Every structure is written in structure tokens, then in C-alpha cells.
Amino acid sequence: MASYVAAIDQGTTSSRCMIFDHSGRVVAVNQKEHRQLFPKAGWVEHDPLEIWDNVRQVCAGALASADLVSSDIAACGITNQRETTVVWDKATGKPVYNAIVWQDTRTDEIVSELGATEGQNRFQSKTGLPLATYFSGPKVKWMLDNVDGIRERAEKGELLFGNMDTWVLWNCTGGPDGGLHVTDPTNASRTLLMDLETLQWDPEICAEIGIPMSMLPEIRSSSEVYGQFRERGVFAGIPIAGILGDQQAATFGQACLSPGEAKNTYGTGNFVLLNTGTERVLSDNGLLTTVGYKIGTNDTVYCLEGSIAVTGSLVQWMRDNLGMIGSAPEIEQVARSVDDNGGAYFVPAFSGLFAPHWRSDARGAIVGLTRYVNRGHLARAVLEATAFQTREVIEAMNADSGVPLKSLKVDGGMVVNELLMQFQADILGVPVIRPVVNETTALGAAYAAGLAVGFWGSEADIRSNWAKDKQWDPSMTDEVREKQYRDWQKAVTKTFDWVE
User: Where is sn-glycerol 3-phosphate bound in this sequence (predicted)?
Assistant: First the structure.
């Protein structure tokens, strides 16, 4: 009898495969980074074929590291970097262009044109989303308009579109030889093309943006058996039974299964999701309304989301572009060499500002510099930027929901940074709670797959698996907290209107 469930976690900087037991504990993990391609300022791309090759390698590596075979795995789920857009030839499996990554801002003119007469919220009532460079639909339009010959091929039905979940699933299930062209509502809700109520592609919006509907994958639930891995490969025959976009997967893995429960994932960017139950809450404060998950035939669960573009990637930028640290964990040690930020604030608007501002004209800025500021102060300002941006989103969420946050569950790579976690609790004024398994993105996808095949009986099993590892309580005075936040808000205004 199969004793484990696997998850493929195709992220912004790497792909990995994780294997979990029934208690939700990690049995094996294998991970491989892929290249970040920056052909022009504001452009970010990935090579889809490199990513698919890495996915195959990490699946094999995870099995081997735990000395398991495919028959030990009951099912596999997929979770992915959302909004990153791939278009490929369905006959050959060859992408027509590199994947355009969610951080990419090249579609700014397209977005401005779409909102020229009816404004940024033109499609919000149906999609829950503002017009922004973040989402997949404008990225597809850019490819159709700028890559020679592909609009004609798309209109002939020769090309397929998908976020990374669809690209991985199609290849896992056979590619040109019968691969499944499928997505789930969490990913479809990030395209600007799906009706949140019907969970179907909206023909009017597709026509207005200029995307042939023949390109679009079938939308199925987040937890059901879609098919099996192709006969070639180490995962041959394993059912693929769950798909969740990475932030929804983390929400599910954190057991935020009731209205009012929220989590924040600290990864390349930060993403705060609040479960609003079966009610679609449209935001008046710059947040996104998104599908949280749909388990089989159960009612759809929705979330409010605050998306922050640059948090962990700012640490990576300090390491790779400036050479100020040798490794990401080193930033905590450097930041601890000083007692505060020395008056310096770093607003990392590298891709504009996401929630709650949605300013694609913004660009990054360091403000408050004096001769006193040193490397330690800048390291601390980098970490504090993550916490300040999170507070902006939490305040918007409190305003939209009418329910003040009482605590925050956290996960992702940055939650091992204890200085950051303490400052996050301080600047929010609420406890911050880290679970035993902090990489909950893969765990959430595993849960979705396991529920579909009966490996876990119900969502109650997910709740019982969740366990607290550590809690940080606020220790900052209200006066200091509000002074620092006011200075942050002032710093944010200095990034506006940079791009004309």
C-alpha cells in the first residue's frame, strides 16, 4: 500500500519535489534552481524547457533520496509560480517564446490601453482583479502581438497557453502524445480571463483583450484525479490529483480553512491570503479577490489577497547584484550588527508596487541616507521593507473584511530569519506564528492530491496535522511602531511617477 504523497513545487527561482507522510512531515526533498533571464530593464523570463528538465530531475532525486519507488506514492500534486505565462506548439511541445514571469512589467502599455476609458477596475467585478502587468492575460496578448506569426497560429488552434501548472501537467502526462491541457480555478483566477462566479473563461473579456479561447486550458477543480504520469519516467503511473497556485497551496497547507484565517508566505515576494469562505469579497483597498481552493465538487472557497512583488528577491539582489552579503542567511547577522535602520528605508519597487498601491510607474528607492548609515543599517532596512509592506497589506485587509487580524501564520524561506519575524510582530502589533513544516506550499499541493485519492479522509486531517513551532510576540511600543510606519509611508511616496 502506498504510504506517501508527492508534490511538484515549480517556483520562481527553482523547482523541487517533496514527499510527505500521512502526518504531513517531509520524507524527501530534491531541488534545482533555474536561470533568471533579464533581456531588458523590467523584463523577466524563464526557459520553459529548462524548467521541465529540472522537474524530471527533482522527481527522480526525491524518490532516490528516500529509497522509494513509484508504487510507494499514492498521488502527486502540482503547485506553481502563478501568472508566469507559457505559450507552446501543441504538436511539438516547443515554446514559441520564453516564459514571461509574473514580475515582468513589459505589458504596461497594454494594461494602460485596456484601462484607458473604463479605468483600472474595468474587469474587477467579474475577475476580482485590477488591470496590472502582474496577470497572465496581458502577457499572452504581448506574445501574440510581438512574436512573428504566432497570432495566426493561435487563431488556427495550433498553440496552447498555460501558467506553469498547465505546462508541467501537460508534459507530465505525455506532452504532444496525449498531454492533458488542464488548469484549476486558483491559477485560472490569476489570468484576468476567468469569471469568479462561474469558474469559466469569460468570452467577452477574452475578445476584448484579444486572446483566442482555443488556447485556454480546461478548468477543473483543485483536487481530483486529472490523469497519470506518462509511462516513461520514475513517476510512471502515479495519479496527478491536485493543482493549487503556490499561495493558495500555502494557505491550504497552513490549514487556513475557515473564514477569517490568514497566512503570509515569505518567498521571492510576499503574499497574504485571508479566507473569506464561499463569499467573494471585492476589495475597496487595493487587494485581489481570488479563488482560494475548490476541493472536488465542494463549494468554492475564496480569499482576499495582498501581493507584494519583492521581498526575498531583495535579499537575493543584495547578494548577487551588490555583493554585500555572501549568502542569503548572512543578512540576519549583518543586520544584527546595528540596533536599528539608522534612518534608512528601502522601498524595493523593482517591478512597480503591487498591493495595495498598484503603481507600475514606481521604481525602487533608498531614502533617509546620511553619512552615519552603514552596511548593517542597509541590511536591516532590507529586512524591514518586507515587514512594512506586509503591514500595508494587512491594514487594507482589515479595512475590507472589517475583522482586525489577531495573529499571523507565516511560512516560506524567510521565516527562519528570527530578526525579521520579531520585527514583523513588532510592526503589526500581533503575534507571528511559524509552523513545524514551514514550506507549506508543497504540503498544500500534497494535501489536495491526497484528499482526491482518499489518502487523507477530510480537511479535519489537515487541521490535526498542523503544529506550531515558534511564536513571536510584539515588544515595540505603540509610539515607536507608528513613527517607523509613518516614515515608511513617506518613503513609499518617493518612488511614484518615476516611469513616464
Answer: 12, 82-83, 134, 246
